[in-house]
Each structure stands twice: as C-alpha cells, then as structure tokens.
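All the exercises in this workshop are built on plain-text protein records. There is nothing in a record beyond a sequence line and a structure line. A learned vocabulary of local backbone shapes supplies the integers on the structure line. The question running through the whole workshop is how a given chain folds. Here is such a record, shown just as it appears in the course material:

***
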Amino acid sequence: MSLNRSEKEAVINEVTSLAAKAQTLVIAEYRGITVADMTKLRADARSKGVSLSVLKNTLARRAVAGSAFDVVADQMTGPLIYGFSEDAVAAAKVVADFAKTNDKLVIRGGAFGGKALDIDGVKQLANIPSKEVLLAQLCGLLMSPISRTAVVLGALAAKKGEGSAEAATETAAA
C-alpha cells in the first residue's frame, strides 16, 4: 500500500527522531522470514530497547541523511529491516542472535559512531558485553582489593584474638 505525502513525512520524522537518539543502526535482509518469526524478533527487540522497522528504502535514506547513519545509505536496497538502539550493542546483539537461529535473516551491515560496519563488524559489536555486564565487571574489579584487605584484616584480628586468649589463660593459670 502506498503512502500519501503526509504519511511519508510522518515516517521520515519518526525515523529521523529515532536516528537522532540512537547510537547504532543495524540493517538486515528479512526475505522469507515467517510472520511468526518476525513477531518473535520484534518482541525480543522491544524488550531490549531496540526499535525495529520495515521501511521503504527511499524514506529511510531521507530520514538518515545528515545523521551519523548516512554512511550506510548506499546499502539501503532490497527488503530490509532497520534496527535502531540507544544502547551501543543492543541492536547488533538482537539481530545477530536472531540470525544465528534463523538463516533467512541476513545481516547486511550497520553503523556505529558515524562509521559503517560490515557483517563482521556487526557481529563483533554484538559480542561485546552489555553495559550492565561491563558495569558489574568493573564493580567486581574495584571490590576485589577491598575484599582481599578485609580478609587479611579479619585473619590478623582472629590470630591476635587467639594470642590474647592464650595469654589470658596462662595468666589465669598462674
């Protein structure tokens, strides 16, 4: 179904606002995917904060013109699904994970930080741990010296406590 001019402008405005907030764009070809699989992919994406859209490529090119995602405008051909995410790795992770289980979804490329990504670049981006995992790892690294110090101090206190208990029993016996 074709869109009238005002509908096209609304789509362009919506995608432009998505692109303005997003850090990452992933483009994948969805030819041959069943409706049930596409619904599953969209639900998974929505739960992870990724906006997936099937757009007319000319509208997508106009929407990303002048943005950091303009570098992939030449790749916008064929039946594509566009995944935008504010989290740097979320869109790549959602699409790459789904592509592992469904060979009909073919990653075409993407963009991150104003640079175009090829298929391998998207897969590498997908393998980076999420922000929450990285923060947890950082907290673990910061807590490690503190917990080691606490263990050593606890052992010293226990040893000192044993020594003073022995001295108290010797004094009491004398």
The helical segments are 5-21, 35-47, 57-64, 90-101, 119-126, 131-173. Residues 3-127 form a domain with the Alpha-Beta Plaits fold (CATH 3.30.70.1730). DSSP finds six helices and five strands in the chain. The chain has two domains: 3-127, 130-173.
